[in-house]
Every structure is written in structure tokens, then in C-alpha cells.
Write a structure and sequence with these properties.
The radius of gyration is 20 Å and the shape is globular. It has 13 helices and 13 strands.
């Protein structure tokens, strides 16, 4: 099917956004994050209902989904925020949507792939070899593109950069190191550094009441509150360590973007702490990571800097190609 009107969809653990000719609507995502304890099969059915009821007949639908997947085979392996730890076999979402709505053409990519495509389009510069985008939202993941070949290399299962489920590098106490992850593991990067983890880290540290923590956090950190500063240091620390690791393993990565709802809700605070940690000299290997030069290599996104809805359409148009190694 060609020449169809395009509908862009961004599905995360918190929100489902749909953009069509009449504008963009945002509704709560039918996810495990919002509906803990609901079986995976029921959550998938709710998702199908939500999409099919909102997509006009005869559309080209480009879906960005916050899940680990094989984008070539259109198989979803899992997503802690969307479906918890309960996926026993891959979900073939495109097949399910096509069966229910054969009038439309369905495309599916990982949400970080979509965000990376838009980040490259907006922020890559001549001479950049590889560009990386890391999202810190209800979950955490990373994608890298070789902008010289317009490809995103992945492994045989279609995966790249599922860093949210690595063990976190943290200087926090045992209570922080053992915090649960929505995927069922413990002590993962997402257990400490993802948006929903903030309250859990605060409780593990005994920081105090968490009801107004998100609203008060920046003022408390800027005001010199020791407990808030310790909390914020630990929340950002796993991401700072990931940035150091990425550059250590691949020096051809010329630009890293960091975005997602958790970052973009407090961009300046996040940038200040991230730059401080990444620029800290711990050995001879840290040359060139000073704050003055980080601005050219590390971009902390503000709202509007990256839009997965634009990115998923760009992917459907072939802006970048996912290539298995």
C-alpha cells in the first residue's frame, strides 16, 4: 500500500501518543507500569484496542515501541515498563495489528531507534562518524548509528544497547544496589536511574517523604540539601558510567544525546550533575573529558530537541536501516 496518510505512534510505559492529520493525542499507556498485576495477554489486547480504535481507516501507521525487539522480524522480546517480566514468547505486534486492521499498513521500530533517527536528523554534523542516543524515561536503552553508512548495527536477535538491564555501577549502599527492576532483575541501571526508580532510591537512602520529592528535588539540590544531593548523585551515576564506558569502547562515537521524559523534565539539573561526574578525572584515561569540551560531544536534551514521532516516520521512510551483524 502506498500513498496512504501517515499516522505516527509512540508507545511507552507511561503514555501512548498518536499523531495524525488532526493533531496529537496522548492517553495513558495500557502498560504493566500503570496496571501492575494485569496479565500480559490482557495488556496486549488493551493495546490493540487502543490503537485500532484511534487509527483512521486506510492509514500508514509507523509505531515506535518502548520494547526490546527484532525490528527485521517484527518480534518483541520484552519490556519491563510495558509488560513486566511475564513475556514467555515473542509478541508479533505487527501481525496482530494487521490481522485486526488489514486496511492499514503497519510499521514497527524500537522507540530508541526512532528517537535516534530524529536526533541524527537534527543534531549530527558533517564529520561525525557515529552518533549515539540514550533515553532515560520509564525505561533506559541506547542506540548507536553509523552516520557514514546510515545504519544501526544489531546482533542476530535484532538487539543493540539494552543497557537498562545491565548491572548498575553505583556507589550506593546495599539497599540501593539490590533495588528491583520491572524486568524481574535487581540492581539494574533501570532500577536506579530510570524515572520511576527515583522514589525507590529515596526510600532506600531514607531521604524522607517522597510525595513531593519530584517537585522539590531541584530546589533542594540547588539549595545545598545534603540528602537531596546524595540522592541525585546516585540516580545520575549509572548513566555517567555508561557514557564513560561507551566512549572507552568506541572512540568513533562523536556525539551522545541523552533524552527521555525523566531527563527533559529537569534538563539543567541533569546536565550539571552528568557533566560533573563525567568530567571527574580518575586516571590518565580521562583526558579530554573536561566540562569545557563535553558540550561538543554530549548533548542533554531539552523538551522538543528530539521527537520519536518524527523519528518513527523517518525510519518508515528509510532514513536509517537496521542491519544485523
Amino acid at each position: 500500500m502506498t500513498g496512504l496518510p501517515t499516522v505516527a505512534v509512540d508507545l511507552g510505559g507511561t503514555w501512548l501518543r498518536i499523531r495524525g492529520a488532526d493533531g496529537t493525542c496522548r492517553v495513558p499507556a495500557p502498560s504493566a507500569l500503570r496496571h501492575p498485576g494485569v496479565p500480559v495477554e490482557e495488556l496486549v489486547e488493551r493495546l490493540l484496542d487502543a490503537l485500532c480504535s484511534r487509527v483512521p481507516t486506510g492509514s500508514r501507521v509507523a509505531v515506535s515501541c518502548g520494547a526490546a525487539m527484532d525490528e527485521e522480524r517484527k518480534e518483541i522480546h520484552g519490556s519491563g515498563p510495558l509488560w513486566g517480566s511475564g513475556i514467555e514468547r515473542p509478541i508479533r505486534l505487527v501481525d496482530l495489528l494487521s490481522e485486526r486492521r488489514p486496511d492499514s499498513e503497519w510499521h514497527l521500530v524500537n522507540d530508541v531507534t526512532a528517537a535516534l533517527a530524529d536526533f541524527v536528523r537534527r543534531h549530527a554534523r558533517p564529520g561525525h562518524r557515529k552518533v549515539c542516543y540514550l533515553t532515560v524515561s520509564s525505561g533506559i536503552a541506547l542506540r548507536t548509528a553509523d552516520v557514514r553508512t546510515h545504519t544501526i548495527p544489531v546482533d542476530g536477535a535484532g538487539l543493540q544497547g539494552e543497557v537498562g538491564h545491565l548491572r548498575a555501577v553505583t556507589s550506593g549502599p546495599a539497599a540501593v544496589q539490590s533495588l528491583p527492576c520491572p524486568c524481574g532483575g535487581r540492581g539494574h541501571v533501570s532500577s536506579i536511574a530510570a524515572g520511576p526508580a527515583l522514589d525507590g532510591v529515596a526510600r532506600a537512602l531514607g531521604t524522607g517523604r517522597t510525595e513531593t520529592l519530584r517537585e522539590e528535588l531541584e530546589a533542594r539540590v540547588r539549595g545545598g540539601d545534603d540528602a537531596a544531593i546524595r540522592l541525585w548523585t546516585l540516580v545520575v551515576e549509572p548513566i555517567a558510567e555508561l557514557v564513560r564506558t561507551v566512549w572507552s569502547l568506541d572512540p568513533q562515537i562523536d556525539l551522545i544525546g541523552i533524552g527521555g521524559g525523566f531527563v527533559e523534565a529537569r534538563t539543567a539539573l541533569y546536565r550539571d550533575e552528568l557533566f560533573r561526574q563525567v568530567a571527574t578525572v580518575r586516571s590518565y584515561a580521562d583526558r579530554g573529558l573536561d566540562v569545557e569540551h563535553l558540550g561538543d560531544r554530549l548533548h542533554v536534551c531539552e523538551p522538543g530537541d528530539v521527537d520519536p514521532l518524527d523519528g518513527v516516520v523517518a525510519m518508515a521512510d528509510g532514513a536509517l536501516t537496521v542491519s544485523k551483524i
